[in-house]
Design a protein that fits this description.
Radius of gyration: 18 Å
Strand order of the largest sheet: 6-9-10-3-11-12
Bound molecules: adenosine-5'-diphosphate, magnesium ion
Low-confidence stretches: none
Helix content: 25-40%
Order of helices and strands: EEEHEEHEEHHEHEHEEEHH
Mean pLDDT: 91
């Protein structure tokens, strides 16, 4: 069997003494698309933050391995440098730092020097796919961006940074149909370009329409209670989470 890109075993994490994740086992290989579903408050965003090393959370048990390295104690910065990417539900606004400048410095931190000409060319290509007006490159990061524009700016970062693993937390929520289509296209493009792995946290199937889902995981109360293939997404959309919530109580 191929080595896993990301593997957690018995991952347990707390915030201010409260345990939010209980013994989560998750294995993701390069190029795979995983979907994480579950009712509100189940701990899905928490898992995303813990995987990325957000200092608000404390891992109290279990391990996180990424590309063969134990990263459980690694800072968020170093995880990003190692090739992990998380899109936030509430992205940061930074007056004075342009979208272009932000992406370029993130790229340089990761890969060292980047030729300006090559950078601009790739930026223009990606912005065109996302149908973003080129003037957005010079606007302050997320300042005054609409919800849809923020999501597109995030997918632009994903396409430019080409991380090995991207965790997308409700990237499709609040988007109109056209924006969902463009965001999906950007994600598809990223995956094709870089054989990246995806962990998509979502309630909707819209963003999944154009992506092939390899594995689905259901989280209830900080536990992974079910695993399946892409068909589990449709089953949940028909039947809801009730049967998983019942089995979690038993
Ligand atoms: P999801 O993304 O699945 O909707 P979250 O990961 O955002 O769920 O939240 C999981 C649980 O953690 C929720 O019950 C939430 O209330 C709880 N939680 C989040 N932050 C804190 C905190 N600072 N203190 C205590 N509980 C918290
Ligand atoms: Mg959430």
């Amino acid at each position: 069997m191929k080595d896993a890109l990301l593997q957690t075993s018995g991952l347990t994490a707390c915030i201010e003494e409260k345990e939010l994740l209980h013994g989560v086992d998750l294995t993701i290989h390069s190029g795979e698309t995983h979907v994480l579903m579950g009712p509100n408050g189940a701990g899905k965003s928490t898992l995303g933050y813990v995987l990325m090393g957000n200092p608000k959370y404390t891992v109290t048990d279990g391990k996180i391995y990424f590309a063969g390295q134990d990263i459980t104690e690694l800072s968020a910065d170093k995880r990003a440098k190692a090739g992990m990417f998380l899109s936030f539900q509430e992205p940061l606004e930074v007056p004075g730092l342009t979208l272009e400048g932000f992406i370029r410095s993130a790229l340089q931190q990761k890969a060292g020097h980047v030729r300006y000409y090559d950078f601009k060319k790739e930026l223009a290509r990606c912005m065109e796919i996302l149908q973003m007006d080129p003037s957005y490159a010079q606007r302050s990061l997320n300042v005054g961006f609409s919800g849809g524009e923020k999501k597109k700016a995030e997918i632009l970062q994903l396409m430019m940074l080409k991380p090995q693993l991207a965790i997308l937390d409700e990237t499709d929520s609040g988007l109109d149909v056209d924006a969902v289509r463009l965001v999906s296209k950007g994600i598809e493009e990223y995956q094709r370009d870089s054989n990246g792995a995806l962990l998509i946290i979502t309630h909707s199937t819209r963003i999944l329409d154009s992506l092939h889902v390899d594995h689905t995981h259901v989280m209830v109360d900080g536990h992974i209670v079910a695993n399946g293939d892409g068909s589990l997404v449709d089953e949940i959309n028909r039947g809801g989470y009730e049967r998983f919530e019942r089995s979690a109580e038993e």
